[in-house]
Amino acid sequence: MTKAEALAFLELPEDASDSEIRQTMEGLLEHFLELSEKAPSDFLRKLNAQKVSKIRAIGQDFSEWSREPSPSKSVVLTQHDPGEEDDLPESAPIIISHGSRSSLKNTSVTEPAGWLVRHTENQSPKTYSLWKGNNYIGRKLHETLKPFLVIEEDLFISRVHALISVEGADNRFSFYIEDSADSNRGAESKNGTYLNGNEKRITFRTKLNENDTIQIGVTKLILRYNLHPIKKIVKEVEKSKFMHTVALEL
Prior knowledge:
By secondary structure, the protein is an alpha+beta fold.
């Protein structure tokens, strides 16, 4: 598998660091293993087990295009994957660096400052990394605006929909969101950006707090700081109540 194919599957930008790739693989692997084990049907079990196999295949190829030396301490994830014996390809386990997660105040420059976690009714969770600086959100990848968080499944989202800025010194970050012609490098979004179920669209730069819910299109994203492992964050978000959805006009 090429690096471009792996990054597309992991939903990471082209300039993602090796540390971010490893971290994303770890979180997704644990997440899809759990989904496979708890799947309510054989079809869903196989579907999630296939995603596990895909992530392990990425891990197998990772060393070929990794820019960083292999970690001195590592852990091999070899849990049995439910469904792997049922016409699913076998893959080698992936090697992931092993170490404690940093808190927000000592997050390294190779780790995201936080995440957006999708928390929309009838949709599985997805995580999007937020990095210091400008993080653009939209429906189609923009060649010159990076990092760019692509949400393709939502037709109510504009090509460039909103901007999240991450600012701070000594790795103490503040998060801001804006949806305007200036922030989007051209035009404000067609359907607006909303915060915490408030039906008044955001028209100016607005500070965000942890656990705020951002609605773009019909997609709702919860902001979480880099304080805990991504698996724990996703579980907490899954257990939380859904925010009121602002109705959009067709």
